[in-house]
Amino acid sequence: MKTQSALNTYIKETGGWVASQLEACTRCGICADACHFYQALGNPEYAPVWKLEPLRRAYEQRFTVAGKLKLALGLEKKLTDSDLEHWSKIVYEACTVCDKCAFVCPMGIELGLLIHEVRTGLAASGVVPGDLAEATEKQKTLGSPLGVTDEMWRERIDWITDEWEEKIPVDKPGAETLVVFTSIELMKFPDNLAAIAKILNKASENWTTSSTGREVVNFGFFEADEELTKLFMYRVFKAAEDLGVKRIVISECGHAYEAFRWTAPNIMKVPKGIEIIHITELIHQLWKNGRIKIKEGAFDDGVITFHDSCKIQRLGGLIKQPREVLKVLAPKNFKEMTPNKEQAMCCGGGGGVISIKEAEANRYAVFEMKMEQMQDIKAEAVCMVCSNCRLQFVDSLAHFNSTIKVHSLAELVSKALV
Amino acid sequence: MDWSEILRFSRGPLFHLSLIIFIAGMTYRLLRIVLLGWERDRTKRQGSKLWGTILNYLRGLIILPFIPWVRRTFRNNALTFIAGGFFHLSLFVVLAFGAAHILVWQSLCGISWKPLPTPIVDWLAAVGIISLLVLLINRLTHPVLKLLTKLPIWINWTVVFLPFITGYIMTHHLWFRYEVIFSLHMISVCLLLIWIPLGRISHFLFYFFSKTIHGAQAGKRAVTP
């Protein structure tokens, strides 16, 4: 029964776009070397191509002569419930859907986006790790994966307003910019929320938050449950339409940016004339346009590096913007890790992995590689633009007793405002 | 056994039948993919899809194959990159610039061109054979490849290796009578042609799909593919 739901989903999702890429694979295995989970843990089942098995088998057995032949000759079996359980562990707990594999595949197969399709089938059949499903359910019923209710949200916003003495408008009529934060910022990194407020207030931006569209994180998108993905984005789009804003600013969340910027228009009706922009892009614009001024060399004391988030840099294209800002903040001491930019290695906590307790060992193992990259350039601090990455960095650095400091770009900029 | 009769059959009707199966099979697969339906991409672009695609082909076909070591994945996959690269080069040169193959092209399409000097083609054929052996050993030992390699992949390897090795033996007049080895070469080529539409050797066609898709994806997001 479970398998049937997965199969139906795979068959529904398989258009020429998916099929042609599955056909192009030569089984060369090079994608394994892009995968931080395979690199760190050495389990061959973590090779990105292997993560596509359920989708490939469903496709071949339904649509291709070779697939039907293999089935008839007993060379391959139909998918079963236990197969789905098996791949659920691999695809949710050892993959952050960072898409690095697509950038090393000699054939250019978009493995990350295809793994998202694999997750779609698993979500449809309900084979999702418990912790992830629980957080998703919380977002569905309470409005936030961390269980923040409307009341808690208001209290927290009021507290941040008082504590940092920054005005945070809520449901402001006539605002042009709607900023949607993550629960992670709200609950774990309130300094980041305050920093963004400070920057926007300093730039005299006509902005607001919304009490109904208040969560930008999309656990439906982590699970790859299409209906929930749409529902969670709909809440924000609805709020934006009701407020009549011109643009939605996605705060520091990579997966949310991917969902709003690159996925929404293809899976749902999006309000016309509302621009989707990431906070990194906005800060960069405000600085370029002279609406905020940053003190040069404000953080030039020790080596500082930048961590590229998979969905914001590699897949979002916001590669030069944060670097331009960082080179002003730390002209002498800004150093790149290797690899970087499009080829950068993921933090290991994205794609919902950090919310799954059972994936903890995987995520720490991956982070050790990231830590080596930082140690190689003797970094004393690291900056990033994704609060999910930040959570992984803060938690893992503490786990390994490292003294490297973690900053968000907004936080650094807000402290360097003149 | 009358080998000259077998040769006549294998380079005549069998070869033509195999070609027809190959072309019909690949056409079927191509149409199947195209007709599965393609959704329009409604997202707002940040960069040019066309430029991303062009850049992706430039990198994949012209730049990176000649400087593979700049890729970080090269370190752990040197064998796959080097042997894979030389194998494709060898395949291309032997098929397109071997004197005997040019005659086949001429009989099929009516056009011909100047072959490369025999020693060059000959050496490259040997390189192709060695590359295939290296790739085989790699496939037998690499943990990920062991997991990925099922019967069809072994068939792929075999049907590619046979034409190479029989062709090489034939041009060097080793061990077999001419009609025998020529027949074996033709039969193995026919096997290859019939197998291609069923297996993953067909990647030479789908390469253009995935490469274009990735290039366009990278292009619209304004990143280097």
Task: Describe this protein's structure.
The complex is a heterodimer of chains A (418) and B (225). Chain A has 3 domains: 2-127, Fumarate Reductase Iron-sulfur Protein, Chain B, domain 2, CATH 1.10.1060; 133-288, Glutathione S-transferase Yfyf (Class Pi), Chain A, domain 2 (Up-down Bundle); 304-416, Rossmann fold. Helix content of chain A is 55%, strand content 6%. Chain A has helices at residues 2-13, 16-24, 36-41, 48-51, 53-63, 65-72, 81-93, 100-104, 111-124, 130-142, 150-164, 183-187, 190-202, 219-223, 226-243, 254-267, 279-288, 310-314, 320-329, 360-376, 387-399, 409-416; strands at 177-180, 207-208, 247-250, 275-278, 304-306, 334-335, 381-384, 405-408. The longest helix of chain A has 18 residues, at 226-243. Chain A starts with a helix and ends with a helix. The model of chain A has no long low-confidence stretch (mean pLDDT 93). By secondary structure, chain B is mostly helical. Helix content of chain B is 76%, strand content 0%. Chain B has one domain (45-220). Chain B starts with a helix and ends in a 5-residue tail after the last helix. The model of chain B has no long low-confidence stretch (mean pLDDT 90). Chain B has helices at residues 3-35, 49-63, 74-97, 99-109, 118-141, 143-148, 151-171, 178-195, 203-220. Chain B contains 9 helices and no strands. In chain B, 31% of the residues are buried. At the A-B interface, helix 2, helix 6, helix 8 and helix 16 of A face helix 1, helix 3, helix 6, helix 7 and helix 9 of B.
What is the element string of chain B, with H for helices and E for strands? HHHHHHHHH
**Could you tell me the number of beta strands of chain A?**
8
Number of helices of chain A: 22
Mean pLDDT of chain A: 93
The first-level CATH class name of the largest domain in chain A? Mainly Alpha
Largest sheet of chain B: none
Instruction: Point out poorly predicted stretches of chain A.
Output: none
